[in-house]
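Encode chain A's predicted structure.
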Amino acid sequence: MVLPSDIRSRAVSSTRRSLEKVLEVPVFRKAARRAAAEINQALDDPSGSGIYGPEYFGADRDPMDRMGLSGYERYDRESSNANAAAYMVWRNFDVKRTLDVGCAAGFVVEALREMGVEACGTDISHYAIDRATQGARGHVRWGDLMAGVPYGDGEFDLVTCLEVLEHMRPEMIPTVLAELERITSKYVVCTIPSFGPNEWGPGGWFQVKVRDESVQSYYDKGPDYRGPIPHDDIYRDAKGEPIEGHLTLASFAWWTEQFAKVGLTRCGATELRIHPQLARFGLTKYWNLYVFRKVGVDEPQAEVRQPDEFEKWEVAFGLAGRTASPEDAAAVARAIARAEGATVDLGVPQMDGAPHF
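Encoded structure for chain A:
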């Protein structure tokens, strides 16, 4: 039997009001978000893999023939720079328990556990979690930042979120950042593709963030432009989709403000101490670093490991032979000098014509 349209409308309205009343209770609202996330993922891909499934992680893809497609040419511990990320956390933070949000197959988790850190991970990709690397198995779980990841308040000393937040829509960012703040007791470390001036390190540029034909128009907006970049202007991959699934591309100032709104303060001195390490590992061009601390937590100490330990893990992780490019070294030196109120001209041009790097 088909109900008349006016009766259907009243029934829908009544049901919606009832649901809204139930969802005023936080525990029910969180459960509903988790259920909605599972349903949406199943609808998008019956396998449960969603957008971050086999193709994204390079399954059946010729690693030498990416053809402008989003995702990884290959996905392993070295190509993902997981060793460098784990080393950065281990060397610069005196923490015992960490969570890698957006951990994928858990390479950072595995590396940190090898270094004696009680590391865990969470990711929205069932495909990745189901194929976790050997050393991370049993320590990674499925989770959705919007629905709430399956961990308690302040359960971890430090939470990493590396190349993840740009995959969220701008309207999702407040909820996502509040969740990061909830689960850490001390620090949050992120890398987020950003543009514009950076008070605590090399700045960012618009190339491969906005469409090629729009790059100059964004530079013309000047250093005070914060973003986020409108969806239609985001750089596209070969399929015409936002590159790498990026949905929020904004300035250092915008991101810093968003974190401050949820009670996370940027640790500039720590970032400046880490940047030379990133440069030496060849990551200055690729990782826009952010370090945050919770209210009442002190800035991390300058040295938490011994120099002889540095060499041990740099050799073990294949990092010892890396050297900074002149461009990266110069960009970091300029950033440190600027933060210290000095000026420096190293005679090395800024890369890609980007005025803020």
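The CA atoms of residues 240 and 318 lie 36 Å apart.
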